[in-house]
Amino acid sequence: MGAAGDNAAKAPAAAAGSNGKGTAASMDVVSSSSSSSPAPAPSVLKSVLLSYAYVSVWITLSFSVIVYNKYILDPKMYNWPFPISLTMIHMAFCASLAVVLVRVLRVVAVPASPPMTPSLYAASVVPIGALYALSLWFSNSAYIYLSVSFIQMLKALMPVAARFDAFGVMLQLAAVAAEATRLVLIQILLTSKGMSLNPITSLYYIAPCCLVFLTLPWYFVELPRLRAAAGAAVRPDVFVFGTNSLCAFALNLAVFLLVGKTSALTMNVAGVVKDWLLIAFSWTVIKDTVTPVNLVGYGIAFLGVAYYNHAKLQGLKAREAERRAASMATAKDGDAEAGARLLPEKDAGEQKN
C-alpha cells in the first residue's frame, strides 16, 4: 500500500515534471520563433494614407511658395525683380535655421554611420546644391516673364498657347531639367548611400552649399543692378520676406520628407495635381489666359496620374500579400520545429514513468 501510494504519488509528480519541462520548452520555442519572425507589415490602407498625407503637405506648401514668389517678383504686384537675391534669402534663412536646430537646440543629430566625410559631401551633396541653385534661380526668374498657369504647364511639358516669352520658356525648361535631376540625386542620397538623413539634416548639408553656388551669378547679374537701384527698391519688407522664407523652409523639409518616404517619381506625378490647383487659381484669381488646348493637354496628364496611382496601389497590395504569405510560412515552420523539439522530451518523460 505504501509502495503503491508512493508510486501513485510519484506518477502525478513525474507527469507534472514532464509537463512543466514541455511547457517551458514550448515557451522557449515560441519566444525564439516569434523573435526571429519578421515584424508585421503595415497595411495597404495605412501606406496609402501616409503617402497621401506627405503629398498633401507638399502640395499645400509648394502652392503657397509659388504664389508667394510670384507676388514678390511680378512687376505688377510687389515688384521686387531680383530672383537670385530672393533665392539667396531663402537659402540663408534655411541654412541658419537648420544649423540652430542641429547644432544649438540639438533637435536632431548629424548622421554618424556612415559619417559625412569630405569625399562623400563632394560626391553627393555638392551636385545637389549646384542643381538646386540652378533650379531655384531659373524657376524664380521665369515668374518675371511668364504667368503661373503657363509655367505649370511647361513643368509637365504639355502643349501650350498662352502668354509666350522665349527667354522665360528657356529659363523654365532649364529649371525643369535641373529640378528633375536634383530630385533623383536626393533619392539616391537618402536611400542608396546608407545615410540616415532626415529632412532637417538634409537641409543642414544642402542649403549652405546651394547658397554658395548662388553667390556667383548673384555677384555678376544682380549685384550691379542692386547698386544702381534706388534705396527703397532694394529694402525688402521684413514681414513679407520673413514669412516667405519660413514657407520656403517648410517646403524644403516637405520635399526631403516626400522623396525619402516615397520616391522622386511620386513627387513629380503628384505635381500634376498641384499644377491643376495652381492653374485654377491663376485662371480665376490672377485672370491668366488658359485655352481649351491647355485644358485638354492637362486632362491627359491627369489621366496619367490616375493610372499611376492605380498601378502603385496594386503594387502595394501585391507586396503585402507576398509579405503575409512569407510570414505565414515562417510561422508554420516555427510550429513544426516546436513540435519536433517537444517529441523527444515527451518520449523521455514517458520512459521515466
TrEMBL record:
It is a multi-pass membrane protein. Residues 163-309 form the Sugar phosphate transporter domain. GO terms for cellular component: membrane. Residues 1-22, 327-353 are annotated as: Disordered. Pfam families: TPT. It comes from the Eukaryota. It is found in: Membrane. Residues 343-353 have a biased composition (Basic and acidic residues). Keywords: Membrane, Transmembrane, Transmembrane helix. InterPro entries: Sugar_P_trans_dom, TPT_transporter. Its main location: membrane. The chain crosses the membrane at residues 49-68, 88-108, 120-146, 166-190, 202-221, 241-260, 292-309. This is Sugar phosphate transporter domain-containing protein. It comes from Oryza nivara (Indian wild rice).
